Amino acid sequence: MSNKRALVTGASDGIGLEFCDILATRGYDLVLVARRKDKLNQVGAALTHRHGITCTVIAADLSKPQAAQQLFQHTNEQHLKIDFLVNNAGLLHNGFFTELSLAEQERMITVNVLALTSLSYLYANDMASRHKGYILNLASLAAWMAIPNQNVYAATKAYVLSFSQALGNEMNAANSGVMVSALCPGYTATKMMDNPEQGAKLHIAANMMMSAKAVAESGIRGCLAGKSVIVPGVANKLATGITRLLSKTVLTRLVGSFYRKNMD
Question: Judging by beta carbons within 10 Å of its beta carbon (0-12, 13-18, 19+), is residue 154 exposed, middle or buried?
């Protein structure tokens, strides 16, 4: 039996599902977390059949108060020690800030920032007590720039990148044995690119998007290799370089024009 266990939030589809498959291939038992229990049960059964690992399903809505604390308590009560935490769950809303629902934007901040921070805190302490562990936080290429019409989302991902880099430095300085990484993908072929629940749709050419599998593999490989910041794909690496060459004012103007032109 495996003595390694990973917990993945947002595990039911997209990049989260690919994280699960890759970790299972590497011999990790899994704790699958998302809102829909029926979907998680299907995913868990398929992963167990394919890889011979053990899957534990926990249905949780990370936008609810104390959801992260309840999740941590649940894994503790079940004696599920987590060796690899993947904070993948996230929400996205497109459109003009003043026209989008305030409640939905607050919910996005709760999931993307508060829940991720709480889970990192709880599991980082637990991992440090055992002197081993990995935490992979899903940031975004959006973390490197201000994005009009996607401004709250981009701001939450800037938080994730900054927070993860700082936490990783702290854990390393304390010789905790815990590695913290931020994964910064660009456009990725998932339902986030075409989801009517997130406001306007952003039209991006297929050849500008990476597959969810390639993004997830890059993230897991980079975190296990001890990389603090992981930017998958040559095009995305070039994009981060460009953000350093242009002033924030110019970059924001260019990005805002691009998004408004390609969003409806």
Answer: buried
What distances in angstroms separate CA 10 from CA 31, 43, 137, one per listed residue?
A: 11, 12, 12
**Please, what are the domains in the chain?**
5-261 (3.40.50.720)
Q: Specify the DSSP element, H or E, that contains 75.
A: helix 67-77
Active site residues: 153
Q: Which amino acid is at 1?
A: M
Structure tokens at 94: 């497109």
Tokens of 80: 């599920």
pLDDT in tens, 13-39: 999 999 999 999 999 999 999 999 999
Among 90, 92, 91, smallest CA distance to 201 is for 92
pTM score = 0.94
pLDDT in tens, 108-163: 999 999 999 999 999 999 999 999 999 999 999 999 999 999 999 999 999 999 99
Comparing CA positions, the residue from 77, 230, 45 lying closest to residue 32 is 45
Q: What is the mean pLDDT of residues 35-50?
A: 96
**Does an H or E element contain 32, and which?**
strand 29-34
User: What are the tokens at 96?
Assistant: 């003009």
How far apart CA 174 and CA 10 sit, in angstroms, is 30
